[in-house]
Amino acid sequence: MREFKVVVLGSGGVGKSALTVQFVSSTFIEKYDPTIEDFYRKEIEVDGQPSVLEILDTAGTEQFSSMRDLYIKNGQGFVVVYSITSQQTFHDIRNMKEQIVRVKGSENVPILLVGNKCDLSHQRQVRSEEGLALAESWSCPFTECSAKNNQNVNVTFAEIVREMNYVQNKSRQSKSCCSLM
Amino acid sequence: MLHFIDSSESEDDLDELPRHLPPVIRRLAPLRHATSQYNLRSTGSTSSDSSTASENDKCSDFSSLKSRRASCIELNKEDEFKVMAADKLLMAMENMKHATSSQAIRWRTTSTESLPGIIKSNRRHSKGPLELIQGLMAKKAAVGRPAKFKNLGVVGPPTLISSTVSLHEISGFTHNPTSGHQNEQTHQKTNGSAVHNQLTRNIMNEVLTKVGPYPQIVLPSNGFWMDGVNQQHHMDDQVNNMNVNSCARFKLETDETSHCYRRHFFGREHHDFFANDPIVGPLVLSVRTEVISSCDHFRIILRTRKGTIHEIVSATALADRPSASRMAKLLCEEITTEQFSPVAFPGGSELIVQYDEHVLTNTYKFGVIYQKGGQTTEEQLFGNPHGSPAFDEFLSMIGDSVQLNGFQKYRGGLDTAHNQTGHQSVFSEFKNREIMFHVSTMLPYTIGDAQQLQRKRHIGNDIVAIIFQEANTPFAPDMIASNFLHAYVVVQPIDALTDRVRYRVSVAARDDVPFFGPTLPTPSIFKRGQDFRNFLLTKLINAENAAYKSSKFAKLAERTRSSLLDGLHATLRERAEFYATPLLESTSSGGESAATTSSSSNSYGGGILSSVKKAFIGRSRSVSQEASHVPHRAATINVTSRPKKSISSTSSSTSARTHSPIRDEEVVKPYRKEWEISSQESPDNEHDSDTGMESMSSTEMSGQTRASSCTFCVDDFHVAANHQSSDAKRLETLCVDVTRLQNEKHDLLRQNVSCKTDIKKLKDRQSVLSEELERANDEISRLRRMLKKPSNSDMAPVHQHFERSYSDVSV
């Protein structure tokens, strides 16, 4: 069975832990308890193919830059989360793609952009079009979800698996082309 | 069960309610809590009796703070294991499928290796549960190392398991045996927080039903320690017993090891080595020779995955064999490798200093939370829409109010472009450090949000917070749910907004946070002003640095350090290989020198050996012995000759000219030493050989043509004949004189360098002594304050003992 190491990144309070816990155990954590670092493991079947996800839920504060570089270095796929109810959380992640590429040393990195808390439409501050535009500039998939209502949560993690498979296949094809030449 | 120190307690109450602690031994409180914590857990423990007895002894031993810290770590580990054991029972079959995944095992094995040694030793005590699990699992794959079991069993991380899981929550597992593990774990996390919060609230409400004054802090039954408890007695004295610390100097407790390389090695003459030990892992060693108190010493820094060690070792400790591996073993006995490679390429020092300083920070962010009288929940704390004039008075003391829009200094995660995190905040600069405060009432208030997420997402991610209590009211450190917040400084004004305004201060922190200074005076009441500001900011910074030593953050720091050291070692090795090839290709002698240096554990000896081989291949043994005998002199000679070689190797056009004087110098010095040695031995054959060499040297010095020299070398008869003549004798005498004068010149130069070095070391020593004097003065003032404290004669020994313990920790 294939294994993937997924890192969940984003500013504080956007719902990284709630999203991850909803995916792993189908429960919603109402109480906000800021995370230092949590690690989860769950099997998932995507397009008929079973996989194991090792999910690293990270701190939202920028206090440990060395540690964040370490997460990126050891991770394979990255779920970048902001909250649609907070413009600042959207601004905070603008440099995330650049940081991931710098540490990975490659442009071909599986990234998924996620706007959480889409159930709070009355408090929306970030339009879907803004999220989509950022995702297009990153050349990565985009989705909005609600950890509270379990809306698009499984789709989110399935999508990052597809993205990781896609990047790996793309890399393999590139090698084939090189060998042909 | 939560309890608190009641201001109305007496000795009679102490007998009836042992949970209430007398004031004179208030610092005993966290240790008692640790014991209570263990007792609660041991009820449900499946450990063996011997293990229980052993840990019980540790818990009952109050001899040192270190013991308490170790006990807490073990308790946490014990608790983790119980949950993991339950997990294994529930998920046994599912985990079997993961046994074949080597990648997963490797991934988690790496994580396991970073655990502190004490936890590893604790794992052996947990053999009982493992045996139970083995009994349940019939398949062969079930049998394996405890680490492997840990890997298989962990679906969620240890950090998901609350460090204060109570027996109540363990029972929760029993009641839901058929539930999925992950569901249970998540439920536990939420439920645990709710249960504790409810218990704390009940206790605080009970406290508030009584007549005041109330204690500043109410501790939950486990998980926290506190300092600075006030009683009614001091309330009566508050007006008359002001404590002004204008003479005291508050010390920031920083780790000096991270500064040592830049301070003592970087940009100065020193040697760096890297190695990979099969047991300890990658190593980076720095060595520098220093003369301290007129004696030779080695200043050594050794970097391992476990940490960095800095020591000054007397040269006599290494006798006449100061090899890199022996220096490393002095600092870490477990090292077995002898293969240390020198860092002999440009940029190595920059990489090393960058690694050493990765933990340093000059920026801090602290939460400031406003609490009104009677508030007992975090929703109430974060839900205060505004502060008060007394709060503003306090804020104006700790820092300056700044406009966030366009703010250019450290912003601590606040929005400085779009006003998304409020328009203003409080900022301070203190001892070259920038501090941004997250003030609860200055962050955005959201109507209808019970948790006030826009406020808690900043304060909840701080490690240290100030609780400003508008009125006399209790605060409990577990009111706020956060994995980050580890220490609280609770401040309560007295006579606010008057000329006589004062502040009562207490401190609370998690059990695994070590004590941090400056020490709170008794009573812990401060006048508003610069002195209190200095005290408070120092306390906050020391609190954050202390919190980084708690188990959660220490684990992360160790893993980060290990990864960075692996990276540094790999980079140094790659660059060494990269720079080695061109040197070997450019000059054969250069390659020989490099080979000699890399194969030898003594870089000084390598240089000398290389020099000797060039001049006298047959006499290398004698010179080597002499070099070993006087290592310091050898080092000097080596350094002197090295730059000239570099010049020679880099310029072919100047090589002929510069090489000649170098050769002369080398020829002369070894020749003289050889002469001295042979004089002692008086062998006839060797004497004749030396005579021949003398003649050749004499010929060169006389300036005769090279062709003539060759003729003399080839024709032994002519050399001998020339030796007999009177002119030869006179030349010999002059040669000896010139040699002696040159030696005297070199000796004088060495003395000059040595004197300058001594002067520098004396100045350094003077500054070190000044620092020690300052610390001694601080200690004296602290002891003087201790002597003034009123103490119960019966409790005096225990009290003094704990004072010493805390003193040791802070020093």
Tell me about the largest β-sheet of chain B: 9 strands, mixed
Structural class of chain A: alpha/beta
Query: Total domains of chain A, how many?
Result: 1
The averaged pLDDT of chain A comes out at 90
Give the DSSP E fraction of chain A (strand runs of 2 or more residues).
15-25%
Total number of β-strand segments of chain B? 14
CATH class of chain A: Alpha Beta
CATH homologous group name of chain A:
P-loop containing nucleotide triphosphate hydrolases
Order of helices and strands of chain A: EHEEHEHHEHEH
Approximate shape of chain A = globular
Question: Which structural class do you get from the secondary structure elements of chain B?
Answer: alpha+beta
- Low-confidence segments of chain B, given as residue ranges, are 1-191, 231-247, 584-723, 792-811
How many helices of chain B in DSSP terms? 29
The name of the CATH superfamily of one domain in chain B reads: Rap/Ran-GAP
Q: Give the proportion of residues in helices of chain A.
A: 40-55%
Which descriptor suits the 3D outline of chain B? elongated
